[in-house]
């Protein structure tokens, strides 16, 4: 199978490229620079450019059986950046593919659980629920899902929850904090969470890419078992051989920190891991979903428990010299 991938140099993208190459697929990755391309596994060809290439009517993309769009921004300096990168770029990609002399058998798009929004305790989201995103990141992903419906070829949007595994910069903060024996949570009932091991997520993406049914689909991609914030910290501590204290941090203190970090990110170039998106997710009563439909439709079966996932992530970070 010939596959064109955006976001191939990211956390999920590198794991996915490795899997596709191992099974013999022909993979072409959109990359911004030679330095980015150096992080790709051997056997992956490159197509030079960034997401702006989809706006150019002269762009000719490599003919592919499947296009997998993983590229996006998870921490933005301005709310408008979420819409520009996570929504408008998807619309531009659909239009760019429409202009090609060929059409993909399927476009697979990385959306997010944030497109559905925070869930209620004890009631994980299903695909039958109407999206209720509460912050710019989730709103942009939800709008991108809507844009896919206008595509003249089959599409699949998948909504991962918290993705865990070696090499992820966005969740590394948890492991680094746990190494110092300190976590945090908001007061009150423990937040319910869905998680997914990056290896299981890659399995799901491959199944979606191989899907040759007509039509368009949206799937949640989570492990069937939910967890909570205290259990998450406990498992990270266990893998690091640490007892992690998890004191409650009042919402006003978190909100003030979020405002300060957001303001600082506008003047100092760093990836802000506590913006409005992260704040909304941290203080939500639950961020959970059910993957029953995906398991039923495509026979997907997540293999890795929370403990196995955390253990593998810590092993990977240690091999990278980060822990």
Defining key terms:
Rossmann fold; 12 strands; alpha/beta; 7-stranded parallel β-sheet; 40% helix; 11 helices
Describe this structure in words.
The structure is a single chain. The protein has a domain at about 1-165 and about 195-220 and about 290-300: Rossmann fold (3-Layer(aba) Sandwich), CATH 3.40.50.720. The mean pLDDT is about 95. Helix 5 packs across helix 7 (about 230-240). The protein has eleven helices and twelve strands. The chain has about 325 residues and is of the alpha/beta class. It starts with a strand and ends with a helix. The protein is about 40% helix and about 15% strand. The strands form three sheets. Strands 3-2-1-4-5-6-10 form a seven-stranded parallel β-sheet. It has helices spanning about 10-20, 35, 80-100, 135-150, 170-180, 200-210, 230-240, 250-265, 275-285, 290-300, 305-320; strands at about 1-5, 25-30, 45-50, 65-70, 105-110, 155-160, 160-165, 190-195, 195, 215-220, 225-230, 285.
Topology:
Layout (H helix, E strand, L loop, with lengths): L1 E5 L4 H12 L3 E6 L2 H4 L6 E5 L17 E4 L9 H21 L6 E5 L25 H13 L6 E5 L2 E3 L4 H11 L12 E2 L1 E3 H13 L5 E5 L6 E2 H12 L10 H15 L10 H8 L2 E2 L4 H7 L7 H14 L4
Parallel strand pairs: 1-2, 1-4, 2-3, 4-5, 5-6, 6-10, 7-9, 8-12
Antiparallel strand pairs: 8-11
N-to-C SSE string, H for helix and E for strand:
EHEHEEHEHEEHEEHEEHHHEHH
Helix share, percent = 40-55%
Residue windows where pLDDT falls under 50 for at least 5 positions: none
CATH architectural group of the domain at 2-164 and 196-222 and 288-302:
3-Layer(aba) Sandwich
Structural class: alpha/beta
Going by CATH, the homologous superfamily of the domain at 2-164 and 196-222 and 288-302 would be NAD(P)-binding Rossmann-like Domain
The CA-CA distance between the termini, in Å, is 38 Å
Gross geometry: globular
Number of strands: 12
Helix count equals 11
Strands ordered across the widest β-sheet:
3-2-1-4-5-6-10
- Strand share of the residues? 5-15%
Radius of gyration: 19 Å
* CATH C-level class of the domain at 2-164 and 196-222 and 288-302: Alpha Beta
């Amino acid at each position: 199978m010939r596959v064109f991938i955006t976001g191939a140099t990211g956390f999920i993208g590198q794991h996915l490229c490795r899997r596709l190459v191992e099974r013999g697929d022909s993979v072409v990755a959109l990359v911004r620079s030679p330095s980015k391309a150096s992080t790709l596994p051997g056997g992956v060809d490159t197509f030079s450019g960034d997401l702006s290439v989809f706006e150019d009517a002269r762009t000719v993309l490599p003919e592919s059986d499947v296009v997998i769009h993983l590229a996006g921004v998870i921490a933005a300096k301005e709310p408008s950046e979420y819409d520009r990168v996570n929504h408008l770029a998807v619309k531009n990609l659909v239009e760019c593919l429409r202009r090609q002399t060929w059409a993909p058998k399927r476009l697979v798009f990385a959306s997010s659980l944030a497109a559905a929004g925070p869930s209620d305790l004890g009631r994980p989201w299903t695909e039958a629920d109407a999206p209720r995103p509460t912050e710019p990141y989730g709103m942009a992903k939800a709008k991108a899902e809507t844009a896919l419906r206008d595509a003249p070829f089959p599409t699949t949007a998948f909504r991962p929850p918290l993705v865990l595994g070696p090499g992820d910069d966005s969740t590394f903060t948890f492991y680094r904090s746990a190494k110092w024996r300190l976590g945090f949570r908001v007061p009150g009932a423990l937040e319910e969470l869905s998680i997914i091991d990056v290896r299981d997520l890659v399995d799901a993406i491959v199944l979606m890419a191989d899907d040759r049914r007509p039509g368009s689909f949206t799937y949640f991609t989570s492990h069937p078992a939910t967890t909570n914030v205290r259990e998450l910290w406990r498992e990270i501590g266990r893998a690091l051989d640490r007892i992690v204290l998890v004191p409650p941090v009042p919402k006003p203190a978190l909100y003030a920190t979020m405002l300060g970090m957001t303001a600082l990110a506008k003047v100092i170039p760093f990836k802000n891991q506590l913006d409005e998106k992260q704040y909304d997710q941290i203080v939500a009563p639950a961020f959970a979903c059910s993957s029953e439909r995906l398991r039923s439709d495509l026979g997907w079966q997540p293999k890795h428990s929370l403990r196995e996932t955390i253990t593998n992530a810590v092993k990977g970070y240690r091999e990278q010299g980060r822990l």
